[in-house]
Specification:
By secondary structure, the chain is mainly alpha-helical. It has 2 domains: 18-91, lambda repressor-like DNA-binding domains (434 Repressor (Amino-terminal Domain), Orthogonal Bundle), CATH 1.10.260.40; 96-204, 434 Repressor (Amino-terminal Domain). The chain is built from 11 helices and 2 strands. It has helices at 18-28, 33-40, 44-51, 59-69, 78-81, 96-106, 111-118, 122-130, 156-161, 167-175, 189-196, and strands at 139-143, 149-153. Strands 1-2 form a two-stranded antiparallel sheet. It is elongated, with a radius of gyration of 19 Å.
């Protein structure tokens, strides 16, 4: 998710039931307020005050809460929670992980299917998509001659699972302005079977060519 400057939501942007929504998301995942506090670094008392409507939350605080609460939910997005939030606009999706997640979802692929097809764990894919930690199998870090950190995609298998023509095609997609119109490479049943055998988890990956 995009980090934004610390500020309080204007009254006409923040849904009046944001606290109830956060509590419902937390409880639906069987997570205690103490556990959510541990994962986000936000005091449990602050979380409870937000949930009970006793404290108007800062945008940064809501982002940190939703980064955890929405991590495993493919059918709920930031814009579903705060529709008028500018940073919730899908056109603002940036970075290798978030862009790749947007691609996967637009193709209708589950995280489990993509991770299995690419040969790594679903937990690794989740960290990559959320920018939640180092994932050297998927993203390699190098230093430029001037000492600047540079990140580049490292998995040809992931590029194929997301139906890019190549790793460089995947990299270009992540950097492009018009990424929503990026073409989708066809994948035949024969090539998928050759790579993965008859495992039914890969059936999601094989579908007719289309455009996103």
């Amino acid at each position: 998710m995009t980090k934004i400057r610390r500020h309080t939501f204007p009254a006409n942007v923040l849904p009046r039931d944001i606290g109830n929504t956060i509590r419902a998301l937390r409880q639906a995942q069987g997570m205690s307020s103490a556990s959510l506090s541990h994962h986000t670094g936000i005091a449990r008392e602050t979380i409870l005050r937000i949930e009970n409507g006793r404290r108007p939350p800062l945008a940064e605080t809501v982002l940190r809460l939703l980064e955890i609460l929405l991590a495993e939910l493919d059918d709920v997005e930031l814009e579903d929670i705060v529709p008028s939030w500018p940073e919730a606009d899908g056109r603002q999706v940036i970075g290798h992980g978030p862009r790749s997640r947007a691609r996967r979802r637009r193709l209708g692929l589950s995280a489990a299917a993509v991770a299995a097809a690419a040969g790594f764990s679903e937990a690794t894919l989740s960290r990559f998509e959320r920018n939640a930690g180092p994932t050297p199998k998927l993203l390699k870090e190098t230093r430029t001659p001037h000492g600047e950190l540079q990140c580049n995609l490292a998995s040809e298998a992931l590029a194929k699972a997301l139906r890019f023509t190549s790793l460089s095609d995947h990299e270009a997609f992540c950097e492009a302005d018009h990424w929503r119109d990026w073409p989708v490479a066809a994948m035949t049943v024969e090539s998928s079977a050759s790579a993965h055998g008859a495992d039914p988890r890969y059936s999601q990956i094989v579908s007719p060519s289309e455009s996103v």
